[in-house]
């Protein structure tokens, strides 16, 4: 069994390459590039920055003057954050509650599609069977199904089960309160799979053919190749998809609204933030603060995974 | 303040996703059934016998307003042991359909559009109102109100809250300073507008932006003017497509509204020209009144909640509303309004008990006392209505001279009433001519 | 109601169940895939021994096990896709041939409506503009920035800033931009940045979202603003993956940066480029939140997905909504064909 060995030299080779590459790039390092890229990045951030400033301005100021007047006439308040974090609505509970819901919804909704899609992508890329290309294309094409159109049938699946010709094939799930998380996981996993399979297939299918064939000759089975060769090599791609799926689930409103409901037992942050503007939308200044509260987690996730994720994508795109 | 600090710490813990020990004070959960025999529960005797049952309600009511709802039926819950689980959503109209079709309907829904209600009746989803509830509803509401939730002679919902839309908001303070009089006829209203315009201020301000419901405040204008330029019977024909949408009578109403809304001399005080109406949010459309940049703003009674904090809403305060005058007072006092209906998707006894309770005088008075709410329920005691505008609304609704009509766009099929009518109004404000707009709406009426 | 941590415990418990289920399902599947072939291998070994002992000819190794493996690898995905997307897609297609309440068959009436209603034709045109512009502009920007930032200092910071909009929901991002496009009458203090700039330059404030077709482009800006980060991150990673010796060799040959870009960079990152363009095209076809939040499709800005949602869910016109959805399926066909070609090339190459 020599299957585990190829990863080690590949890894060291890669680091050697990157250090050399780094040296090359350093020489190319130009001041103009730095300047231009920083300026663009700053311009890119202005709208968000404006929102940040708005979120610490009093309600009346937000509604009557531009956020830039803050610099000439600074009026600072944490009222918006106070209202968002410590909720003025007694029936809706504390924001922290929704925060936990968001986490409980997001984590499994990222893990399940990751695992299922990488298995599927491997099979579609490296196992020879009839019609695999057509199957891949079909899965790819499913990306276009608007999830809005899938809501009703999926909800029916959960709430009434499946009956074929009067015979109950699957019973209704009948979930209550926090058990409804399972429905949301299920829904998010379904909706994420086509893109996940597409993205991961792209990386997995580009792994060096020699490597795979060598492993096969050594007698490694598909599950073994998958675990010991493919997974370590595409971890970066997994991280990349993981980040996108995380952002998508964390920011989702529609799926959560349908499958989790709007109570503080199950609803995620987004649902609460959407409600916060009030029945008649008159409290919308809270949205400014709310937006920042909800950005904190995805941004942290991105920043902490970024290095790993950027370094890593290259492993997948090394051509064999 | 140790209490405040612990609250803050907890929130921060939550933000970080950390698990900290709980120090928050638990709210004492009283055992409900023990209370059932106490004197304050006497009024709920007929709803007893469903202890421990749960009834789910779905509505468009959120945040603070939702708190008030919870508060309003608290005693009922305590006494009967029925647990009312209310959920409000800003996506109510669309999501209700998804939930019902998906087999996950709520027990009760507060439906603000008779048109939507009728759609669920047609697809056989809404249950007819139980006999007890029906009897009570017939006692407490006029046939005018019940007809909006009646389909083929059967009652499918009971009215809950209402609002009056035929109001013009103004500043009593400014009016007093400038010596302006509150107009009681259409001609006076136009005279006053001209007078204000001559003084250099644009008299009217308006805004119809409202997220995915943009356009509705303009449809209210048209409905109000349909009621003022035409007879109530023509209004009814219009909402039921008895006359085409591009009938000359409708065009007349539109053009009449246009004499104000599309008059650059009159609008849009505090915001800009006519076109700024389209992008001004309805929430802030009236605020220039408080700064004197505009004097008149036609909007419903619930606009009382939209004024900036610290604005006194009263007849002698910073802002108040007067009745949007009739063109021809001899024809009576046309009033445009709206409200929501409680419809049941389940007929379990506890659901019917809650539905009956919501139609009762006990409920409406309990809810009205909490504030910012009124109902056409005739058991509502005007003394229980704290807000002066709501008081005025109750008076108008109970005035025998009042000719009440429900918001037309809520009666029409949603494709028009929540679709092309709204969009058509946006285009109309944005410069399209009356005939083209009406023709477009007419052609979109579902066949 | 105070925040009571004890009340949150069931949620963590549920999360734990979810994680346990994850480990059980995925671990179980892998174990199964490991154990079953091992068992087969042992059996074959036994057969071989038996065969050699008795002198009978060796049984042929069967080939179809590959297919069986594939089935197990694909099983969870296929199952979920069938329930979550295939059934709904078929249902939608059927509904598109039915009336608004989905009671009677109406043939092609909904499609006829789609191509005769003037406002819907405008919607189709808008969708086309979106799907042509967004992938092009976002990818181009992402690529340029990736090349630029590759040579710059503070790379991580700059990249994070460009990526930042990705962390904001579509609705949140649109609210941010509505602030930018906000309008106040001439002579008043502007609260929107764009109008403030216009006024600062001596112009008159404009109602940006009202002016068709400019407004569609302004909405596209929002989408580009969000998605450029995605393009940049993926392409930047691909650029960094270009082997340094190739770059160095090219430099020794004295190629100009321009030649370097077209001859070395572009061919090397082609696969990543395809992923980005395809992903953005599909995301753009489905764009919904941005238009709904910014204008709700007013002022001639509507796109297919918003009209589909409005007709199916708000207007109760299931047939028309479904027909619009089916039209989306049709629009994706060119991308699918392109993808098939790519796959063929890859298999051959």
TrEMBL record, chain A:
InterPro entries: MetI-like (IPR000515), MetI-like_sf (IPR035906). Pfam families: BPD_transp_1 (PF00528). Residues 1-16 have a biased composition (Polar residues). The chain crosses the membrane at residues 33-53, 98-127, 134-155, 185-204, 225-250, 287-305. Its main location: membrane. Keywords: Cell membrane, Membrane, Transmembrane, Transmembrane helix, Transport. The keyword Flavoprotein does not apply. The keyword DNA repair does not apply. This is Carbohydrate ABC transporter permease. It comes from Micromonospora sicca.
UniProtKB/TrEMBL annotation, chain B:
Residues 1-24 form the signal peptide. Transmembrane segments: none annotated. InterPro entries: Bact_solute-bd_prot1, SBP. Pfam families: SBP_bac_8 (PF13416). The keyword Transmembrane helix does not apply. Keywords: Signal, Transport. Gene3D superfamilies: Periplasmic binding protein-like II. SUPFAM superfamilies: Periplasmic binding protein-like II. Belongs to the bacterial solute-binding protein 1 family. This is Sugar ABC transporter substrate-binding protein. It comes from Micromonospora sicca.
TrEMBL record, chain C:
Coiled coil: none annotated. PROSITE patterns: ABC_TM1. Its main location: membrane. Pfam families: BPD_transp_1 (PF00528). Keywords: Cell membrane, Membrane, Transmembrane, Transmembrane helix, Transport. It is a multi-pass membrane protein. GO terms for cellular component: plasma membrane. The chain crosses the membrane at residues 12-33, 68-90, 128-149, 161-180, 217-239, 269-288, 321-340. It is found in: Cell membrane. GO terms for biological process: transmembrane transport. Gene3D superfamilies: MetI-like. Residues 124-341 form the ABC transmembrane type-1 domain. Belongs to the binding-protein-dependent transport system permease family. This is ABC transporter permease.
